[in-house]
Amino acid sequence: MALSSLFVSLPIPLPKLPSTSKSSRFLPIRASAAAAAPSFDLRRYWTSLISEVEGELDAAMPIRPPESIHNAMRHAVLPGAGKEGAAKRAPPVLCVAACELLGAPRAAALPTAAALEMLHGASLVHDDLPCFDAAPTRRGRPSTHAAYGTDMAVLAGDALFPLAYTHVISRTPSPDPVSHAVLLRVLAELARTVGSTGMAAGQFLDLAGASALGEAEVMQVLTKKFGEMAECSAACGAMLGGAGPDEEAALRRYGRAIGVLYELVDDMRSASGNGKMRSNASVLRALGMDRALGIVEELKAQAKTEADRFGDKYGDRVLPLYSFVDYAVERSFELQDSAAKP
Amino acid sequence: MAAFHPLVASRVRLAAPLLPVAAPAAVVVAAAGPSFHQRRFSAIVAAATAPAATEFDFKAYMGERAVAVNGALDAAVPAGEPPATLHEAMRYALLAGGKRVRPALCLAACVVSGGREAWAMAPAAAVEMVHTMSLVHDDLPCMDDDDLRRGKPTCHVMFGEPIAVLAGDALLALAFQHMASVDSYPPDVDPAKHTARVVRAIGELARCIGSEGLVAGQVVDLEMTGSTEPVPLDRLEYIHLHKTAALLEASVVIGAIIGGGSEEQIERLRKYARSIGLLFQVVDDILDVTKSSEELGKTAGKDLASDKTTYPKLLGLEKSREFAEKLLSDAKEQLAYFEKEKAAPLLYLANYIAYRQN
């Protein structure tokens, strides 16, 4: 099949480097962010969110009959602290941060944050199957099909997708403060993101060998598999927080840039997996280290430019967004000891 | 074997007086407008001398719904959009024909609950997407390992296993996306109540197909298939209530919710759906031992060959048929609560499920 026919004609988020004036415009805010740094501790923020999200996930999947499927679902979503560390839960953190940026209560976003992990987990379970990546382990533990059998892994994924929607509907405080109309937009956003033009497209393109090709193809796989999930996280947080159209659009761009940035840095940091879906071919081999570093800088600048839009209006509440960007690049701390809760 | 079911006599009663598909010209004129079927039905009832229940043209009803549902499904999957092969695989599985029983149930439940049929078209398409997804994953080598579905090669035979897994996942996502999107509904829905109904309906669908619904049935079925012990009757019922009835329940209940049904209407329709869901599977078991592969469009005798527990094996063929009869009358009992004309499609659907030949 002609690979060129597969490619989605989306604007690959290879952002233009911000102009000098823009960079200097955001420097003062960055400086104030640095000055205010002691008041915002990303590690503490993230750690407390992980335990809240894990609490939601734990409560959403009690062991009940048939036990085998619920065990398999828990295995897929609540990996605990394996030898490569606990799940970082980046999509939920992004979702909650976007919601809180807008001044809305955390409780509005937490159920959706947990749902993002269920959808993410379901995709990983299917991605690890023998007919795909055939991954025997994930995060230092047996992958779901290795632990529970291929048939159970298919079904665990199939059950996690609808559980995500059930969870959002049953746990989001609605109709107040989250209206039913917003709830429907969130549900549609979640479904679109894991569907045939989102993550499933990324998995398909990866399968078709797109990531062994040139930069445009590699970036497209990264965007579909990782960028859109992060975009969805930020967009859902925006909607739940009551964002206006411009704010939602800015948070979408921010999320997409952060998602690709995160993955790219992961690929640069380690040749083999520590928790995320791996691209079948090494992204670095296709891009080259120099170009990859260049893209990292572009994405970092783009994400900060988007966060910059919120600085005047929301003051210090924009700090989590800034610090994610730096963390995505620098990985200045580890989260695993904090996330060992089952 | 001559009569496949003790109720076969009543099947003759149903089949014989069916109206010709083309209605008389005067009736067609009267029928123009949104309540086409209802009015045509009323007009015929007024003119007819035969019992009202035999006047409903079920074949035409199902044919028209299948066309409308196929149109909605065709429009819902982005055919031209890349990745082309993934969308092709989704369309291959989704548009392979089939009787569209679940969408028809959804549409009929919406109307019987007081809604307009068009309100429920998106949910009707969604339940067919979920149904298709479950078939695509069910046919995989690691599950039932079927090469043939509706007389055609299965999705994974045509496109390979990984694409079949992804196509199923994508259909599942599309079902929820389609149902949640405002654009999927006509403009005449009740603006004050519609969004809350859609939220509730999506929750109902998700619950019915998850680890306490459809998937639970598949899991227990898988666990039983590996065992050499015969499956006890209550386990068999558990499997069917979840594996088959849950999605029929979702179809009917979300139709009723979107149609604005009362709580009592919704619960009666839920009971109706559970009865016909179980009935569906009992009849399936009977057909598997009484029909050929050609007649079924899938491999016949597979249950026997795989030593799978079925109702005929546990109860014998006659007792299985009696059970089917009981389930059918349970379903009809729930429908007695509704306006007779509006409930006609659901009544005929129950009969159809009881007396189908494949």
From TrEMBL, chain A:
<dbReference type="GO" id="GO:0008299">
    <property type="term" value="P:isoprenoid biosynthetic process"/>
</dbReference>
<protein>
    <submittedName>
        <fullName>Predicted protein</fullName>
    </submittedName>
</protein>
<keyword id="KW-0479">Metal-binding</keyword>
<keyword id="KW-0808">Transferase</keyword>
<dbReference type="Pfam" id="PF00348">
    <property type="entry name" value="polyprenyl_synt"/>
</dbReference>
<dbReference type="GO" id="GO:0046872">
    <property type="term" value="F:metal ion binding"/>
</dbReference>
<dbReference type="GO" id="GO:0004659">
    <property type="term" value="F:prenyltransferase activity"/>
</dbReference>
<dbReference type="InterPro" id="IPR033749">
    <property type="entry name" value="Polyprenyl_synt_CS"/>
</dbReference>
<dbReference type="GO" id="GO:0005737">
    <property type="term" value="C:cytoplasm"/>
</dbReference>
<dbReference type="InterPro" id="IPR000092">
    <property type="entry name" value="Polyprenyl_synt"/>
</dbReference>
<keyword id="KW-0460">Magnesium</keyword>
<comment type="similarity">
    <text>Belongs to the FPP/GGPP synthase family.</text>
</comment>
<dbReference type="InterPro" id="IPR008949">
    <property type="entry name" value="Isoprenoid_synthase_dom_sf"/>
</dbReference>
TrEMBL record, chain B:
<comment type="similarity">
    <text>Belongs to the FPP/GGPP synthase family.</text>
</comment>
<feature type="coiled-coil region">
    <location>
        <begin position="314"/>
        <end position="341"/>
    </location>
</feature>
<protein>
    <submittedName>
        <fullName>Predicted protein</fullName>
    </submittedName>
</protein>
<keyword id="KW-0460">Magnesium</keyword>
<dbReference type="GO" id="GO:0046872">
    <property type="term" value="F:metal ion binding"/>
</dbReference>
<dbReference type="InterPro" id="IPR033749">
    <property type="entry name" value="Polyprenyl_synt_CS"/>
</dbReference>
<keyword id="KW-0479">Metal-binding</keyword>
<dbReference type="GO" id="GO:0008299">
    <property type="term" value="P:isoprenoid biosynthetic process"/>
</dbReference>
<dbReference type="InterPro" id="IPR053378">
    <property type="entry name" value="Prenyl_diphosphate_synthase"/>
</dbReference>
<comment type="pathway">
    <text>Isoprenoid biosynthesis.</text>
</comment>
<dbReference type="GO" id="GO:0005737">
    <property type="term" value="C:cytoplasm"/>
</dbReference>
<dbReference type="InterPro" id="IPR000092">
    <property type="entry name" value="Polyprenyl_synt"/>
</dbReference>
<dbReference type="Pfam" id="PF00348">
    <property type="entry name" value="polyprenyl_synt"/>
</dbReference>
<dbReference type="GO" id="GO:0004311">
    <property type="term" value="F:geranylgeranyl diphosphate synthase activity"/>
</dbReference>
<keyword id="KW-0732">Signal</keyword>
<feature type="signal peptide">
    <location>
        <begin position="1"/>
        <end position="30"/>
    </location>
</feature>
<keyword id="KW-0414">Isoprene biosynthesis</keyword>
<keyword id="KW-0175">Coiled coil</keyword>
<keyword id="KW-0808">Transferase</keyword>
<dbReference type="InterPro" id="IPR008949">
    <property type="entry name" value="Isoprenoid_synthase_dom_sf"/>
</dbReference>
